[in-house]
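Need a sequence for this fold. Nothing fancy.
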């Protein structure tokens, strides 16, 4: 029986802050396949995340198919908009959510992981942020646009640059993107569509560079609309989900487990010849060029759901 076997592999998953995002789903799938999982959590919510784990808030979500509980070998504070501590402004260092922390930049976390574990096999970049995501692109400030690029796109480049040297040859890296990279999605603003387009371009270039330099594979998953905490911040996620269910080939909700399973495959030896790829996991929404629920089409039976045969 062909299965995903990641026993003996170690993964670092950046971007887990609760139990309903893609990062959590990917970490859980990797653990199901036998991998040891390290986590990077955004520094300001580290205390809340750890407390929620300790208090059992996530226990239902932590249950694995074998009856055991999802365990993280170690949780590191991580702020992926900073490459080194010298980059951190004084006001951030002194912020009450940061003041008790140290070594939370990308380079520092990579060094700490190397000191703690030597090397990793898998790197997952499941984080993004656009401070002006609810603004139209025409209304987005330069600072807001650059912040979206820095947090959502350059952070992947920096993570791979710093973690690549401690990754085992044959390892793999993965990021998450969205169809707004190549299609206009009104309401997904603040430069986030630009950030996702840049991310997908970077995946291809990084696949070449990291492949030749460290024998690593680099891919991305273009995930469909999903009601995560981060997506709810956009303010239109319910409409996006409803639109997808009305127009995608598969008229169902997208589940985090589906992203997790696809990620586990792409990060496993089963995908050893796949790199530089953006794989759509969106119930087929990316394949559509027509909104079949449009009022303009309702009088034409051609656009109704095909009868079963």
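Here you go.
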């Amino acid at each position: 029986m062909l299965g995903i076997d990641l026993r003996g592999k170690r993964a670092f998953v950046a971007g887990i802050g609760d139990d309903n995002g893609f990062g959590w789903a990917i970490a859980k799938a990797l653990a199901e396949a036998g991998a040891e999982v390290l986590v990077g959590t955004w520094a300001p919510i580290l205390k809340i995340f750890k407390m929620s784990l300790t208090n059992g808030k996530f226990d239902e979500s932590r249950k694995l198919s074998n009856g055991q509980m999802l365990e993280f070998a170690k949780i590191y504070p991580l702020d992926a908009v900073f490459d080194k501590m010298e980059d951190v402004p004084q006001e951030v260092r002194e912020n009450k959510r940061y003041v008790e922390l140290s070594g939370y930049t990308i380079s520092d976390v990579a060094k700490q992981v190397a000191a703690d574990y030597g090397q990793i096999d898998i790197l997952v970049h499941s984080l993004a942020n656009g401070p002006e995501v609810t603004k139209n692109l025409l209304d987005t400030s330069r600072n807001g646009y650059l912040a979206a690029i820095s947090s959502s796109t350059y952070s992947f480049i920096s993570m791979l640059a710093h973690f690549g040297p401690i990754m085992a040859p044959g390892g793999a890296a993965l990021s998450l993107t969205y169809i707004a990279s190549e299609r206009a999605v009104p309401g997904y603003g603040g430069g986030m569509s630009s950030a996702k387009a840049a991310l997908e371009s970077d995946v291809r270039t990084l696949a070449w560079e990291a492949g030749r330099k460290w024998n690593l594979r680099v891919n991305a998953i273009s995930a469909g609309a999903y009601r995560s905490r981060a997506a709810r911040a956009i303010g239109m996620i319910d409409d996006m989900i409803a639109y997808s269910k009305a127009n995608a080939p598969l008229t169902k909700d997208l589940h985090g487990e589906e992203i997790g399973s696809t990620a586990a495959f792409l990060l496993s030896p089963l995908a050893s010849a796949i790199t530089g790829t953006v794989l759509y996991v969106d119930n087929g929404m990316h394949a559509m060029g027509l909104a079949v629920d449009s009022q303009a089409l309702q009088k034409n039976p051609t656009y109704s759901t095909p009868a079963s045969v």
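For context: Residues 10-303 form a domain with the Rossmann fold fold (CATH 3.40.50.720).
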